Structure formats: C-alpha cells, structure tokens
Amino acid sequence: MVLSSAASTGTASSATGVTATDVSGGSDLLPLHPFELPGDPLSPNRNLAPITTRINGLGALEVGGCQLSELAHRYGTPLYVLDEATLRATCRAYRQALERFYPGPSLALYASKANSSLAISALVASEGLGLDAVSAGELLTALGGGMPPERMVLHGNNKSAEELELAVARGVTVVVDNWNDLELLAAIAPARSSRVRLLVRFTPGIECHTHEYIRTGHLDSKFGFDPDQLEAVLRHLAECPWADLDGLHAHIGSQIFELEPHRDLAGVMADALQLARSLGHRCSDLNVGGGLGIRYVAGDDPPSIEDWVRTVSEAVVSACSQRGLALPRLLCEPGRSLVATAGVTLYSVGSRKAITGLRTYLSVDGGMSDNPRPITYQSQYTAVLADRPLAPATEMVTLAGKHCESGDVLLKNLALPAAASGDVLAVFATGAYNASMSSNYNRIPRPAAVLVSDGGADLIQRREQPEDLLRYDVLPSRLSSLS
Ligand code: LLP
User: Fold this and answer.
1) Best of 207, 336, 430 to mutate for ligand 1, by most ligand atoms within 8 A of CB?
2) Does pTM top 0.90 for this prediction?
3) pLDDT digit string, tens, across residues 107-132
4) Are residues 163 and 73 in the same domain?
C-alpha cells in the first residue's frame, strides 16, 4: 500500500491527531489507522485494505485507481467495491506457494460461499484456480463464469437429488458427506456411461476456534462422516462399480490464525489415505479445506498465505513419507483469505443521535442486511471517511445500520473526524461472507457491486430495486378482492 501523503508509519495518534483520551476520556487505545500498518502485497489477507489503496492528490481514498466517493456517487450506496488486483494477488499467492512448497501436483479451489458471482468465478478461473460450490446456485454461477467443471467440487451436508444430478451431469466431483449422498448417487450414477468422481469428507477430530484448538476422538459436527464410519464407507465404495474414489476431504474451521491445527490435520488425513489405499482405492487427492484468517482490525495478525501453504505442504509431505505413501495431489479450499481483503463497502452517512454521557449513534444507509457478520458473530471491522481518511478524529461514534433491530450496529467505538450527512464511509475487508450472506431484512434491496481495476469500474452485480422484492410474492385473488 502506498501513500502519497507523508504519514505512513506512525502511530494512531500521529495520523489521526488524537489519542483515546481526546475522544473518549477512557484509557482504551484508538485502533491503528488502516494505512499505518506495514503492507504485505504478497499476502493481502495480512492487510486491512486492498493492495491498490492510495490517498490521491485531493486527500481522498482510491482503490483500483478509482476515487471511492466518486464510485459512491456514480453507483449509489451501499456499494460493494471489489479490487481486481487484490483478488488476483491472493489467487497467485496460493498458486505460487503451492508450486513452490508442494513437490506434487496441487490445486487451490476457491470456496465460493465466501462470495459467489459470475465475475468472481471468471476471475478465479482465469487465475487457474478451481472452485468449491455448495448448492445448485453456486454451481451454476461458477459454470456461468466459465469455471471448468473438472476443477470443481460440490459440497453439502444435505444435497438434494437435483443438486447431485446437476453435478454428475456436468462432470463436477462430488464430496460425499453422508450415507444419504451415497444412496442418492447410487440411484443416479449407474445410468451414466462414465464413473462418478468422488471425494469422501470425514470429521477429522480437530476442533478449531480462532485462537485455540483441541483434538478430540469424536466431534460434534454436522459435516462429514464420523471417523468411526470411515472404514465402512471406504469398504462400501470399493463395491460400487459406478464410483471412483478420487480422494479424501476434511476442513477444520474458519478465520484461523494458528498453523498447528493444519499440521495436525495432515497426519489425520494421511492415516485415512493409507486406509483408503489399502482397501484398493486410487485416492489421488487430499483436500485439506480452507480456514486461513484475515486481518479485520489492527490487532489481528494472521499468518501469510505462503506460511500457511508451506506448513500444510510440509506436513502432508512428511506425513506421507512417514507412512510410505505416494504423494497425493494437494487440494485446498480458501474462501475468506482469497476474497475478503479485496472488498470494501461504501455507505452514505445519514442521521445522528447523540446521547449525552453515553454514546453517539451515526447511522448509515445499510447494515445487517448487507453485512450480517457483526450481529451474527460480533465481528469487528475498520472504517474511515472515504474523502478524509487521514483527517484527525474528533469523536467516537457507534456506527449503526438502518434496520429495525437495536443490534444492527456495524462498528462500535469508531474514531472519526466530524462526519456529516452525505459523507461516504468506507468499511474494509468486506469481500467475504458479506454479499453472500446478505438478506432483504426490512425489504431492503441488496447493494450493487463493482469491480475496480486501473482506474476503471465495471458493474458486476446490479442494485436490487424495492420493486424487485415483490417479484416472488403471490397475492391470491381472493385476497386482492378484499381491498
Ligand atoms: N471448505 C469448506 C468445506 C468450508 O466449509 C469452508 C467454510 C471453506 C472451505 C472456506 O473456509 P475459509 O477459507 O473461508 O475460512 N460465515 C462465516 C464463515 C463460515 C465458513 C464456512 N465454511 C463467517 O462469516 O465468518
């Protein structure tokens, strides 16, 4: 990240001109300014803002060469902005690290639940990655974006017969999660001329929270076969002439900052691989899932993509060599770390309510419908005014959304320069699990999304209109005649 302004490495107080005491009277330190952290262009997940973020000659924030406030005026707010350079940089970071640290074949599959659209699918495909889909909708979106089916997998703990049929018909590998999948596939697959390619997902017995993890014999998870069942499944599949067991899958969690659980996972998976191969399965793929965390606030310190890939690669190589196993193709499924940092959400500031001695609410024109993560997980974010990102903070506000829900708060304790109605506010690291988890709560239309690159912006998602929300309503005629 490059600043045209002088301030680039100071502390929070040097750039914002205030300390916590100035604005809150308390002892909490102000969050570091997003532009004061050392940038890591090779691993965007370690930055707060997209790698193309600049302060232009007007002192305003630019991403992908586009002034954010200008985008807000052109496309309206709330607006999801996605930086193409950051997304491509993360794709390349995964691909290059896999090539460098894993001696066998490898493929990173984008976990499209993080943000599914035609444009993102096309970009990720053009970078040579594959994709993980969990529904017919994600699958069709990826195919529509040009993702080759042979680079895709279909996940899900309760896939419908229609979803399985679609995957099988298009040649997408199915990640078998349970016996129900196998029963449904047995009804679909034998009629086809080629065998169906499968991975088997099992629960690895590694429970991972963001900052701690435990290994247990049994895990309370709805995903995948219990490890106790694995041998029976593998034996069953050996008797299914319609099935090719290509490999095994496990995933330990999301927004993980530790590397150790991923190292442990390799050992657990290598044991399973040994068992599968001893039962006659080719089992050439080992899919270790996703999970690498990102920086949402200054205090977050996730590992780099390179460190994550190196750890996983070395652990798989060592676990396989200890067991005398030929190296599998290594698959992984990054979602958040691939797309989150590329995203910035723009809002317009609206009303203000100052409660003396308590707090000041500043409301924006979006909230929990376009970003349900704060209300769902108490997730933290970083935000600045788009046209005055380096202006000294003068007040501490609670940034509220516009929904009829008291908990609809996007950021608590945000230090800002005095913001007026109409100012554009930029919230960082919103590229993952925001658009994809958005809703129409309060019948609020979903935002538009634009892809920015080299000073140009392309619309990649049209803004919903209030009228669109009536499209699937049906008014029975006996009710319409009542009025
Ligand atoms: N593979 C599988 C099988 C998964 O279930 C997931 C995420 C991933 C890959 C991608 O994990 P990532 O690299 O993004 O950590 N809505 C939550 C996150 C849910 C993640 C679900 N599974 C959030 O907003 O934090």
Assistant:
1) 336
2) yes
3) 999 999 999 999 999 999 999 999 99
4) no
